[in-house]
Amino acid sequence: MTYPSPAIVDTIFAPVYRWRLWITILRISIQERIIYRGDFMLGTLMRFLPIITQIFLWGAVFSALPTGNGSEGRIVGYSYHDMVAYYLLTMLSRAFSSMPGLASGITREIREGTIKRFIVQPIGLLEYLFFYRLAHKLVYYSVAIVPFAVVFYLCRGFFQETPHGLVWATYIASLVLAFLLGFFLEATLGLLGFWFLEVSSFLFIYMLLSFFFSGHMFPIDMLPEPMATVVKLIPLQYLAYFPAAVFLGKVQGAALVTGLLVQAGWVIVFAFLAQVALRRGLRHYSGFGG
Amino acid sequence: MPQPLRYLQIFATFARNSLIRDMTFRANFLIEFISSLSWVFMNLGFYILIFHYTPSLGRDTGWGKYEFFVFTGTALMINSLAGMLFMTNADNFGELIRRGGLDFVLVKPVDTQFLVSLQRVDWSSSGNFLVGLGLAVYSLRCLGVWPSPVTIVLYVFYLLCGVVILYSLMFLLAATAVWLGRNETLFDFWFYIVSFGRYPMEIYEGRFGRPFRWFFTFIIPVLVAINVPSRFLVQSIRPQSLEEWLLPLYTIAATVIVFAVCRAVFQLALHSYRSASS
Amino acid sequence: MAAIEIRGLSKTYRVTRKKEGLVATLRALFRPEYEYVHAVRSIDLTIESGEFVAFLGPNGAGKTTTLKLLSGIITPTSGEARVLGHIPWRRENAYRRRFALVMGQKNQLWWDLPAAESFHLHQQIYGIPPDQFTRVRDELTEMLGVRQLLHRPVRELSLGERMKMELVAALLHSPQVLFLDEPTIGLDVVAQYTIQQFLREYQARTGTTVILTSHYMKDVVVLCRRVVVIFDGQIIYDGSLTNLVDHLGDYKIITIRFSDGQVPTDLSRFGKIILREPPRVRLRVARNEATEVIRAVLARYIAEDVSVEDPPLEELIAALFASARNSRLSQERGNSAVPEDTTHSANH
Asked: Does this complex have an ipTM over 0.95?
């Protein structure tokens, strides 16, 4: 059996002539998203409401920490201010890495058979979805930047030192990689729909695991030992924890570089998996004339 | 037949019909049952982790690990009751408005708000209630606290007050669908507001916390919904001020007021109903 | 005493004028522009107890709005109405126990449950005594031929069967007044017929006061002696169906079948040829000339068969609506100097 050319060659480093096509998808998708703005701004602001509870909850936790054991009001090296800053930063990470409706959308296309249009169209499914999602995110950021700015301004006191240039660069790179990882990971999950009828249970498990192990509720360093090691080995931490930890200076020196490389590695793995799943899935599909 | 009994009977039929329906789509029911339970366990995992590092929530508040778990059990029971009885119906109200299904409800010789609020019972949330109950009982045992019958009666009473408060806030928002159309944001709003009450009110402390606590006690009374019943069980919390003594009394007033407001707004909404054709 | 009395009943809806584009949407948020739609304009109507009355009118004429007002679903802008002595929009339980509403385009039965379960619920909602409930339910399901379907989930029933169950559900509490809004819409001929026969029989036996709106003239012909034609929110005809036909139908349709398969070419001098399908021809002839025309045709040609019919009711009604529309238009054109009556915008 011959395998198709490696996925990422097609998807990420596609030939230059396709850029016009990409721009078109992007433009159309942006227009479409803008129509749905509705009470978008309000909705986004509301999503920050849990921060209030988190700030007070951590405040209460830290105020009752036992003193005199040398850790001086820190939990796994995080001070109260770090903890709140961490929580705010993971919200930002998730603004990049979360892909609402991506996997379920793919599954629906498979179930309803509309995915077949990508066999005949001169554009790949992943390519299309990628730019659609990018447009979606760009519109989202252009609106959400206002509430994000407001909240970060109000909470500026929790950020004690601003990172220097190199950390900033790494941070931004890790956010971009978080977006790519989120996209390809969820796309792969959605493409499982070629083989499984009930992908929603997979998605549910994924959601559950990432709630706990991507670190968006608390720094994963807090987890007790067997879990802590496992969590370091799976890619979920790169969706929320890693960018935030980079910003807060919890990852330094060589670890910074390795972390970023591992994150990029996971992106490549899932981009490849998604592409393979799509090709084999479509063949599987036409195989039984679906 | 006396009126309250008739309403109880109608509700029993709603509950029964919902159960028959859920059992027809068993797989779906099971998935929802398990998924809502999983979220509960995820949250519990988070709390366990927190108490791995701290002995109590806030210094000298009395909210140690098991006290807090009694609180969380109570929160689970109140939230799951509100979810089980009213959530689907509040959600469905927008649909009734949009597609004109409210027409049939309005011609029935039974209170319209009653019919709209209780038509469907979401049995898949019943697991959360049981977990909440189990958690509360287990934590009380760990604390070595055995509540007296009077305490239990007061607890159940205030638990129901809590459910009524959450219900009233939910339908207050749901009723606006008559003017605003179906509005998802409003439900998110309800959810976020109610989440403020998922922690002991003592955590809202300090320069910003105090006004915040005041606002969500006296203007939108979500903080009393879970805090007050929990306090009856966990007696280790000493009343710290006059406020503490007045709180249970205030809770009754708050329940009555917020329900009355909800009722008034709902009636106004029914009056403004335009009935979509087809 | 009259079962239903309506005096000067009006319902005006205010609708926001929707605009395209971001800027217009934002502007509308602060300064909405409204349009006023007069769904019902000052209707007067009296219906005696036991009458079976049809509301006729084109879509959006105000038939359904009137039924909704009488059911208390919506509140009027002005005017009065009393049904069985009750003001409907007060929504008193005493009133709601005494009438029923059936809407062909909406259903109230639980979709995933057998109709029997919904009926059981209705028993409790209306407080129907058990023995009466069983008797009425069995009677009605028997009459409609759906008794064996009682325990099948509603979603598995055909549209016709579902509509029959809806009717049973509505009639379980033996209402004194029944509002039927398009009860046969979308049904096949057989189901339509069954429901017509059922309604006729049921009404004759119970003496229920019924108002029916329907697009199927057949329903109206079979069921109603009295017809109320509503156009643009106003009643433009109220009287018997036969009168309406006499009043409008000033022509007859003559169908001639020629024996030699040849159709004469000079027939148009007798009347308007509406169909020419050798060996058959249909002619439209003024009512008072019909006998004359037949005599003349028979004298000249050899006809195998000749029949004379009244024009179809649909056609008459359509003509009535068309003339009503024309007179409205000319009225508006005459008044073009003053603001339009039906819709005008206002800034608030």
From this structure: no
